[in-house]
């Protein structure tokens, strides 16, 4: 399943949605959701503990000027790769 986070993690029930993640899931942060990928934020340990594959949209990371502070646990991808994730995951949830 593909889980996408488009809103700031501070405006989302992160604990609930992280508990939904399974090891076989993909997680994608885009728009303001990329803030979850920042090093040393309060949500990072929780989401990396989920063992889901973690992705963030590169353009959104750079647009917010946070590219130097993104955790290495996140793989930066472009929008073409995002489309491939949607094709791979027939089921999707937007948070």
The string of secondary-structure elements, in order, is: EHEHEHEHE
Strand adjacency order, main sheet: 4-3-2-1-5
Number of helices: 4
**Structural class of the helix and strand makeup?**
alpha/beta
Gyration radius from CA atoms, angstroms: 12 Å
Shape-level CATH architecture: 3-Layer(aba) Sandwich
The CATH H-level superfamily is DsrEFH-like
Distance between the termini: 13 Å
Name the average pLDDT: 94
Mass-distribution shape:
globular
Instruction: Give start-end ranges of low-pLDDT stretches.
Output: none
Q: Provide the β-strand percentage band.
A: 15-25%
Count of structural domains: 1
Strand count, sense and barrel status of the largest sheet are:
5 strands, parallel
Into which percent range does the helicity of residues fall?
Answer: 25-40%
- CATH class membership: Alpha Beta
CATH fold title = Hypothetical Protein Ychn, Chain: A
Subunit structure: Heterohexamer, formed by a dimer of trimers. The hexameric TusBCD complex contains 2 copies each of TusB, TusC and TusD. The TusBCD complex interacts with TusE.
Subcellular location: Cytoplasm
Family: Belongs to the DsrH/TusB family.
Pfam family, one: DsrH
